[in-house]
Specification:
three-stranded antiparallel beta sheet; 5 helices; about 30% helix; P-loop_NTPase
Amino acid sequence: MADAAAVLPQLEDIDFEHPSGPAREVVVVLRERGPHDPTQLADASYGTIRLLSLLALLYDPRPPALTCIEEIDHGLHPQALELLVDRMREQSKHTQFLIATYSPAFANRMTPDELIVCEESADGSSIIPAISNEKVKEIVAGQ
């Protein structure tokens, strides 16, 4: 909850409600500070849903050996990226991350050793890595 509130300061609490009936569903409800009605997660903004989903993934007590995320920054405020990078570094002891992004804002939060630059060749095949780690370090250093 603390991580979510750090990026969503209006968020006060997240509740899980169990409506009566045979469906056995769980409804996630977001409670905001102030005189706001509770919001079901299904009605929240795309960025809020995406952020909470990524945080849930990063707090999985039994993560998979490999976690792949396409365009992690999509729909997120740049402020959320710093938090996600920090949590991924913490969780990298338990899972390996493969993150695909086109976002300079995300890449700028990584160290050169954490980056692998890939590109597509003229025939459509992938070139991995497209440049050496030393070249990545030069680019990051602004040389």
